[in-house]
Specification:
A three-stranded antiparallel beta sheet has the order 1-3-2. The chain is built from four helices and three strands; from the N terminus they run H-E-H-H-E-E-H. It has one domain (7-82): Arc Repressor Mutant, subunit A. It is mainly α and 85 residues long. The protein has helices at residues 7-26, 36-43, 46-58, 73-82, and strands at residues 34-35, 62-65, 68-71.
């Protein structure tokens, strides 16, 4: 059917949103701590941003403190070792 996204396409889009969120959180020119609202505005899709934040937190890649989020030290170090995101 036209207009519908396949499950594979949806998963790829979700992965892309997670990468965008991680990139925002690890940007050296950006704040170290972001609010969930700031992340949602920066990505342009509040629901996708919130879903990505939940998944990243569940995976242990970010910390959440009330309405604020920030990268874990282990995520930052792994990204440095891997040569960036």
């Amino acid at each position: 059917m036209q207009g519908q996204t396949s499950p594979r396409g949806m998963a790829a889009e979700f992965d892309r949103t997670e990468r965008v969120v991680l990139s925002l959180l690890m940007d050296p020119d950006a704040p170290d701590i972001w609010s969930v609202d700031e992340i949602a505005r920066a990505t342009g899709d509040e629901l996708a941003a919130v879903d990505a934040l939940v998944a990243l937190h569940a995976a242990g890649l970010i910390h959440r403190c009330h309405e604020f989020v920030f990268i874990t030290r282990s995520t930052l170090r792994l990204t440095q070792l891997a040569g960036g995101l």
